[in-house]
Amino acid sequence: MSSLSETDFDIVIAGGGMIGVSMALAIASLNLRIAVIEKVERDHDLQPSFDDRSTALSRSSQSMYTALGLWDEIRDASEAIKSIHVSDQGRFGFSHISAKEQEVEALGYVVINRVLGDVLLTNAEKKKNIKFFCPAEITSIEPHKDYCNVNFKSHDSENIVSSRLLVVADGANSSARDFLGIGTNKINYHQVAIVGNLLTEKAIDNRAFERFSESGPLALLPIENGRTAFIWIVPTNEAEALLAASDDIFLSTMQEIFGLRLGLFSNLGKRSSYPLALKEAQRLYASRSVVIGNAANSLHPVAAQGFNLGLRDVATLADCLCEEIKKDNVDLGNVDLLSKYSDWRQQDHKKLKSFTDGLVRLFGDKRKSVRILRSAGMVCFDLVPGFRKLFVRHTMGLVGRLPRLSRGISLE
Ligand SMILES: Cc1cc2nc3c(=O)[nH]c(=O)nc-3n(C[C@H](O)[C@H](O)[C@H](O)COP(=O)(O)OP(=O)(O)OC[C@H]3O[C@@H](n4cnc5c(N)ncnc54)[C@H](O)[C@@H]3O)c2cc1C
Fold first, then answer.
1. Residues 253-300 pLDDT 10s
2. 121 burial via Cβ count (<10 Å: 0-12, 13-18, 19+)
3. Is the CB of 17 inside a 6 Å radius of any atom of ligand 1?
4. Could you give all domains of the chain from N- to C-terminal order, each with its CATH number?
5. Measured in angstroms, how far is the CA atom of residue 90 from the centroid of ligand 1?
6. Three-class SS state of 135
7. Ligand 1 binding pocket includes 12 (Cβ within 6 Å)
8. CA–CA distance, 48 with 39 (Å, rounded to integer)
9. How far is the C-alpha of 99 from the C-alpha of 81, rounded, in Å?
10. pLDDT tens-digit profile of 190-208?
11. Strands 130-133 and 34-37
C-alpha cells in the first residue's frame, strides 16, 4: 500500500461488511484511491456481516459479481435454487415456482455469508488502490465544502482520513449515518429470526421452501455438503425458549410446522438469532456523503431481498461515479451526483420496502377471512403463469432501470 497516502482518499467507505467491501470492489477499476474502515476483523466470532447466515443471491447480484470477475468463485461456493415451494400451514393453497418454467438456469444461489466474505475480502485485499483500516471504529465525521474528514479509533490510537466522498455502509445501526444527522424511520416487527442448519432425511436437492405458519414464516434453503439452512421467524416472546430448548425439542417443534415433505430433521448446527425491524434512512445523502446497503434500508428477511437491494445501491453509485470521472472537472462528492444517485434508487427502495412489509402483514394476519383469501391468492398465483413470471422478475432484481453492473456490464 506504499503508493497510497495514508490519510487522503478519493472515497472512504464506512463499514467493510458485505456491502462495503462489494462497493470497494465495484469501483476498484476506476483507479480511485479507496479506504475501507471496518470495526471487526474478518475471522472474529463477532464479525456481524460475514457470519453463519446464508444469503440467497438474486440474478442482478449474480450479474454484478460476474461483471467484477468474481462470480465463478462465488458460484463454486454456492448452491443453485432450481425451485421454490411456498405454502401456508394448515391451508389448502400453495405455490410452486421453477427455474425451468421461468427459462433460467437458477432462481437464485445460496451462499454462506462467511464464505462470500472470504471471496470478497481476498479479492479486495489484492487491489493496490484499496486500503483497509481494521479493526477501526468510526468515532466522528466532519463534512467540509470540498472534502469530508472521518475520525476513527484503532488499537487505542485516534486517526483521521479525508475523502472527496464518504460512502456510509456500516449497517442498520449505522453510527456514521447518525454523525451526519440523517434520521431514520423504524417499524419494530416484534419478531426474531432464528437461523442455523440441519440435515433432512430426504435430500433438499436445490429446492427452497417457505412455509408460513401461525407463529411466522420458516424458510429452508440448500447449502453446501448436502445440508439445509433454515431461517425461522418467531414472535420475540417465543424466541428465548426456542433458543434455550434442547436440539431434539427445537427440531421437533420446527418439524411440526414444516411437516414431513423432506423427511425427519436431524443434526442441528449452531443456532443464532436476529431481532427484526424495518429501518430506513430519511435521506440518502448529506454533505459529501451517501448512504447505501442496510444503512439506507434494513428489511425483514421474509423475501430474502435486503442484500440484493443493497448491491443495486452499490451498482448505481458505481455507475454515477464512473460517469463523473469522465468529466473535465471531476468532483466525486458533488451534490448533483448525490441527488442523481438518490433519485435513481427511490423506486426500487420503495417497491421492496412495501413488498416485504406487505408480506409480513399479510402472512402475520391471524383472521380467518384473511387466511382464506391468502390461500385463494396462492392458488391463483399458481394458476396464472404471467403473474408468476412478473413476480419472479421482481424478486430476481430485474425490474426498473438497472445500472450497468446489475446488468452484468463492466465499467472498464
Ligand atoms: C436472518 C437474515 C437473513 C437474511 N437473508 C438474506 C438473503 O437471503 N438475501 C438477501 O438479499 N438479504 C438477506 N438478509 C439481509 C442482509 O443480511 C443484509 O442486507 C446485509 O447484511 C447488509 O449488509 P451491510 O454491509 O449493508 O450491513 P452489515 O452486514 O450490517 O455490515 C456493516 C458493517 O459495518 C461495520 N461497522 C458498524 N459500525 C461501524 C463503525 N462505527 N465503524 C466501522 N465499522 C462499523 C460492521 O462491523 C459490519 O461489518 C438477511 C438478513 C437477516 C437478518
1. 999 999 999 999 999 999 999 999 999 999 999 999 999 999 999 999
2. buried
3. yes
4. 8-78+110-186+278-364+401-407 (3.50.50.60)
5. 34
6. coil
7. no
8. 10
9. 8
10. 999 999 999 999 999 999 9
11. parallel
